[in-house]
Amino acid sequence: MPITALALNCTLKADEGAPSSTDAMIAVLADALAKHDVAITETIRIAAHDVKPGVTSDEGDGDAWPAIRKKILGADILILGGPIWMGQIGSVAKRVLERMDAFISETDDSGRMPSYGKVAVAAIVGNEDGAHFSSAQIFQSLNDVGFTIPAVAACYWVGEAMGSTDFKDLEATPEKVLETAAMVAGNAAHLAMLLKQSPYPG
């Protein structure tokens, strides 16, 4: 059974051609996942789409979320990537989490949300403290809406406080980031396979 992953890049940069440190971190995880035969089917830059505010699965005319939602639920692993701003995960990622709140009321006959059996991990970058707080925000929210979080589920890099170097500008990926990415990828792939073979009973 092939395992697939979908990445959401929640950078604040809407221009898909603009370099993004979040993309760079997602690429590190993509390489690590490939070693477990997990392919990232697509990376969606959320800010480039009209994802409307709200807590339903469809906020009406022009809302880009329904199509993105379908892709999220079509994958086995969700990579939610984003930058730290003001010590917390950025606003674009928060909008994604808010839109997935709809899963709570979209259960099947066994009480399972549509995200049940899906695994979620985080890719976080920033030039200030906040990686642990950001992952706490992400994982609590994703768990509330039905995703399963594996052990060691966040791969992050935080630069020097008040510094100007971004992750995408590093000459080489730090060894510790590569080690963590390998652990995140291995655990996520393993858990996704287990859940695919033996779904939650509800």
Total helical elements:
5
Instruction: Report Rg.
Output: 16 Å
- The level 1 CATH classification is Alpha Beta
Count the E strands. Answer: 6
Segments where pLDDT lies below 50 for 5+ residues? none
Major beta-sheet overview: 6 strands, mixed
Total tally of structural domains: 1
Topology as H/E string? EHEHEEHEHEH
CATH topology: Rossmann fold
Mean pLDDT over the full residue set = 96
Report how far the terminal alpha carbons are from each other: 22 Å
CATH architecture: 3-Layer(aba) Sandwich
Strand content: 15-25%
Query: Percent range for helical residues?
Result: 25-40%
Q: Class by helix and strand content?
A: alpha/beta
Please, what is the CATH homologous superfamily?
A: Flavodoxin domain
Descriptive labels:
202 residues, alpha/beta, Rossmann fold, six-stranded mixed β-sheet, 5 helices
Structure description:
Helix 1 packs across helix 5. The protein has one domain: Flavodoxin domain (Rossmann fold). It has 202 residues and is α/β, with parallel strands linked by helices. Helix content is 35%, strand content 19%. Strands 1, 2, 3, 4, 5 and 6 form a six-stranded mixed β-sheet that branches. It has five helices and six strands.
Q: How is this structure best summarized?
A:
The chain has helices at residues 21-34, 65-74, 91-99, 131-144, 175-197, and strands spanning 3-9, 38-45, 77-85, 88-89, 119-126, 154-158.
Topology:
Elements: E1 3-9, H1 21-34, E2 38-45, H2 65-74, E3 77-85, E4 88-89, H3 91-99, E5 119-126, H4 131-144, E6 154-158, H5 175-197
Parallel strand pairs: 1-2, 1-3, 3-5, 5-6
Antiparallel strand pairs: 3-4
Helix pairs in contact: 1-5
